[in-house]
Amino acid sequence: MKKLALLFAGLSLFAATGCSSDSDTVLEAPLVGTWQPLKEVVTTVEVGEDPVSNTITYTDCQKQTRWFFSVDSKGAKTNWGDTATPGVCAILSDIKFNYTYDKDSKSVQMKIQGVVEPQNAKVVKLDNTTLNLAVREETQDPTVFQTRTYTFRRVVQ
Fold first, then answer.
1. How far apart are CA 75 and CA 98, in angstroms?
2. 95-120 residue pLDDT tens
């Protein structure tokens, strides 16, 4: 009888500490924060052909670029680049925008001076340290599709 009571107590403890559906839920990190671009991959697909991807690795100056997303749906992008003097970096542009992010569809829209840019952007990966943003670009040829996927590292949350 003691063994049966011990077995029942063990099973009760196991059931009480088992996994619940709440612990299985993975929460997505917020888009809000400051992001540093590391690289981009341009993938071109022509109907009936294999996709072709090209990786663009940023220079140290280009990696100083920052994308900022605030909690009030305002954002900014400060583009840095190389100058004519080797090893000297400079700000090339400073762009302010409003944005929307739909967590369910993972779509991002940025309005720069009232124009939605980019038209088809999706968050591919978003966690505490990494953001991969895929932007489908329009081409002149309706049989050619191009996607530019940016990889960012979070620098400030």
1. 6
2. 999 989 999 999 998 888 767 766 67
**Could you tell me if residue 17 is left (phi over 0), alpha (psi between -120 and 50 degrees) or otherwise beta?**
alpha
CA distance linking residue 34 with residue 27, whole number of Å: 19
Give the angle 66-42-84 at the CA atoms, nearest 5°: 55
Q: In 3-state terms, what secondary structure has residue 85?
A: coil
**Cβ pair 44, 51 in contact under 8 A:** yes
In sequence order, the 6+-apart residues with CB closer than 8 A to the CB of 50 are none
Residue 91 in tokens = 């700000």
Write the single-letter amino acid at 109: Q
Q: Which residue has the tokens 């944005």?
A: 99
CA distance 5 to 110: 63
Spell out the long-range contacts of 81-89 with Cβ–Cβ below 8 A and sequence spacing 24 or more.
89/60, 89/61, 89/64
- 63 DSSP assignment: G
Q: What is the pLDDT of residues 15-69, one digit of tens each?
A: 444 444 444 444 467 899 999 999 999 999 998 999 999 999 999 999 999 999 9
**Can you give the pTM of this predicted structure?**
0.73
